[in-house]
Every structure is written in structure tokens, then in C-alpha cells.
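Bug #77: duplicate submission created two jobs. Keeping one. Sequence:
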Amino acid sequence: NGDALVGFAELLACRCDAPIRDVGGAELARLYIQPRAQRNGIGRALILEVERRTRGASLDSLWLTVWEHH
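Kept job's structure:
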């Protein structure tokens, strides 16, 4: 069925402190795609939407922090 959740992105758009000194913006805290749905452009679409929302919130920077074992 076409209503199944196959992925999501969590955006923290809060003028958070970036890993770089004196830079603020948003953090893409999580990006998950179900393995069965990978390689179909879903991740790319989610990142584009996160970028759009970051710009819409007038935030200058967006960063992704990656867990060591991922």
C-alpha cells in the first residue's frame, strides 16, 4: 500500500550553535530511510525539503552530525 512510512528527516531549526565557532543555523539531526526504500530518491527529496525549510526560516547554515558507527 502507498501509505507506509519509508523514511523521515528531523530538522532542528532553532538557531542552534554549529560545530564551527560563531556560526548558527539548523541541524539535520536524523535522516532515516527504510532499507527496502533506499536508492529511490527519497533521501534526496527529504534533504531538499530540509534545505527549503532552513532557507524559509531565514537560517544561514545547515549541518549534519553523523554518528560514528553509521
